[in-house]
């Protein structure tokens, strides 16, 4: 490389006589460690070696570095080199912990994360908090509070600029995020355990053993399009566009026609229950439940047996929460063992009711507090 010139910029090195395109090509073969060492050589190389172009290939091989499976950049506002560093912290469990909120009585909170805003259910209301620029804290006052239930909110989702929630009063409520429109209607005879919304429809599931599909069109709002009778309470629903609707009771799949299409798996023990499902693509989904397993399904291959399963529940990462002692675990889908484990409520026992994470932070809602794990500066 040669020694730096008098200005410390390495201008006397023959390296800089090469065209920039050739330098980029040569450095593109370096791994993350070699690029880091190259950047320590001189100030000019530090700037050169920090370019996103050089770090993109190492980042795509990292865990949760902000790239989709197809290679799309999911976090263009964060330098790729910084994402590689944060990915290393995720993998090795290097983080700072903090408690963002506490409340006096035990609740069953649910969360949604939307850019720089975190939505959190607290009893009958949903509170919207603006995240601080560093992501490790919340603005002191909520920017909005959405009310519409007479009993606790069970689940809610964000869809097309609306907050759609289901409550213990059997009602579904819709609120405009940036407007005054608010709709509430009776949906089920018992509590609404779960809701999902997409493509102008709302799906709901209840303790009354039914899953229902509702219209959100201007002239047909509150109209029930289909009712699916099940054998047990419905704990989770997920709409898969364009394929249709997935409802879990423990694990059937149905479509907007209202007809049951198939069931996922046949070996669940009675009472095991699938508590939540998440579609990754129109044909693949993840499920988790009381039996401590996360399962990965591909409905194109086999609906009777999952493709892969992980016991005890960006790039290949899964976060899961336990039903006791507030334990959060991080997983790499390419491996069967968990990467890291964090206990957030010991010695007091609490379920982890909801987890949300972005490139740099993980948020966990327990019975009496909201916790954050900050992986940017351990």
TrEMBL record:
Pfam families membership: F-box-like, WD40
Ribonucleoprotein in keyword set: no
Record-level GO cellular component terms: SCF ubiquitin ligase complex
Keywords: Signal, WD repeat
Domain F-box: residue ranges: 12-58
Signal peptide: 1-34
Ranges: WD repeats: 185-217
GO process annotations (BP): SCF-dependent proteasomal ubiquitin-dependent protein catabolic process
Protein name: F-box and WD repeat domain containing 4
Gene name of this polypeptide: FBXW4
């Amino acid at each position: 490389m040669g020694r730096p010139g008098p200005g410390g910029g390495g201008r006397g090195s023959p390296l800089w006589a090469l065209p920039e395109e050739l330098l980029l090509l040569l450095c593109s073969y370096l791994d993350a460690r070699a690029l880091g060492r190259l950047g320590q050589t001189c100030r000019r190389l530090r700037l050169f070696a920090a370019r996103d172009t050089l770090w993109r290939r190492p980042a795509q091989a990292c865990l949760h570095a902000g790239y989709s499976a197809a290679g799309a950049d999911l976090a263009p506002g964060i330098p790729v080199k910084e994402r590689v560093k944060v990915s290393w912290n995720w993998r090795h469990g290097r983080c700072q912990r903090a408690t963002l909120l506490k409340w006096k009585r035990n609740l069953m909170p649910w969360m949604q994360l939307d850019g720089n805003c975190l939505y959190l259910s607290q009893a009958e209301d949903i509170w919207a908090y603006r995240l601080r620029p560093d992501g490790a804290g919340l603005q002191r006052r909520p920017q909005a509070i959405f009310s519409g239930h007479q009993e606790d909110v069970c689940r809610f989702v964000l869809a097309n600029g609306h907050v759609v929630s289901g409550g213990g009063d059997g009602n579904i409520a819709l609120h405009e995020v940036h407007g005054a429109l608010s709709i509430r209607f009776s949906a089920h005879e018992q509590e609404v355990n779960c809701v999902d919304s997409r493509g102008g429809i709302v799906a709901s599931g209840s303790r009354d053993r039914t899953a229902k599909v509702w219209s959100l069109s201007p002239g047909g709002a509150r109209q029930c399009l289909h009712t699916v009778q099940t054998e047990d309470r419905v704990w989770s629903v997920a709409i898969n566009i364009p394929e249709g609707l997935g409802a879990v009771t423990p694990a059937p799949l149905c479509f907007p026609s209202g007809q049951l299409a198939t069931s996922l798996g046949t070996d669940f023990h009675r009472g095991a229950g699938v508590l939540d499902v998440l579609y990754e693509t129109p044909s693949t989904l993840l499920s988790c439940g009381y039996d401590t397993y996360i399962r990965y399904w591909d409905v194109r291959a086999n609906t009777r047996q999952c493709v892969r399963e992980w016991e005890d529940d960006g790039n290949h990462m899964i976060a899961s929460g336990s039903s006791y002692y507030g334990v959060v675990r991080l997983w790499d889908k390419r491996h069967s063992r968990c990467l890291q484990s964090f206990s957030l409520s010991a010695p007091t026992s609490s379920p982890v009711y909801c987890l949300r994470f972005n490139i740099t932070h993980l948020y966990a809602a327990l019975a009496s507090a909201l916790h954050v794990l900050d992986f940017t500066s351990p």
